[in-house]
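Supplementary Note 3. Input sequence used for the single-chain structure prediction.
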Amino acid sequence: MSPQERAERAAKAMWDNDSASQRVGMTLDHVGPGTATLSLPLRPEHLNGHKICHGGYIFMLADSAFAFACNSYNQLAVAYQNSITYVQPSMEGDVLTAKAVEVSKAGRAGIYDVTITNQNGEALAHFRGHSRTVKGTHFEENEA
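The predicted structure, written as discrete structure tokens, is reproduced below.
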């Protein structure tokens, strides 16, 4: 099995059980070894009292992209530290895209950077996630 096939199978297994990301309207656009891209079209229910996207949804989008990237090796991985910096607001009708890329992977630890942009490619936020692998896999490697 190629690394790309492994990443896609792990992502499918995760996505099939990820009601949180699906229910808020995210889509899984791409996954590869150590990388993932998710998007979220902003609807009225994503807005806060300032009529801009609630930061929690931006964090959730980034965290989901991070999760798919760090789980792309078919090893269960969980977050143990995340941080986000918001640099520009987003509005209803914007389409947010979170692209996660692996910065470092050594032993059980991984570091991933996620950039969240709007449909014009403007950066809205920067997220850094730290992962730790735990026992288990998303699927048996010897399955067809």
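The longest strand covers residues 95-106. DSSP finds three helices and six strands in the chain.
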